[in-house]
Design goal:
This protein has 115 residues and is mainly beta. Helix content is 12%, strand content 43%. The protein is elongated.
């Protein structure tokens, strides 16, 4: 009986020992939340958060699309706030991009005309 128990334990140990893993390594990613938002010209800012996952690391930098209205503060770090301009001629979309090394993701903010 002891011998059968020992053989069973040995077989279970060898079965679960070593070998290759079927787990796929995580892909490094950068994601921005919220992905979409809206605000009114002259209105409240929009808080954005960038999250690195899957082993990704690095400094996150924030930028606006070329010539797009508004400001970002701060421009580095995991969070930023988009502040809309005082006015826009018509509702417009603004693209905010977070970058960390070769990774990037965007958020689209719709700035509504305040009139």
């Amino acid at each position: 009986m002891k011998r059968a128990l020992m053989l069973s334990l040995l077989a279970m140990t060898l079965t679960h020992c070593g070998g290759s893993s079927t787990e796929t390594p995580s892909t490094p990613t950068l994601s921005v939340t919220p992905a979409t938002a809206s605000t009114t010209a002259g209105g409240a800012g929009v808080a954005l958060t960038a999250t690195l996952s899957g082993g990704a690391s690095g400094t996150i930098t924030w930028s606006l699309g070329a010539g797009e209205p508004g400001t970002l503060s701060p421009t580095t770090g995991a969070t930023t706030t988009y502040t809309p301009p005082a006015s826009v001629a018509a509702s417009t979309s603004v693209t905010v991009t977070a970058t960390a090394g070769a990774l990037s993701d965007t958020a689209t903010i719709t700035v509504l005309d305040s009139t």
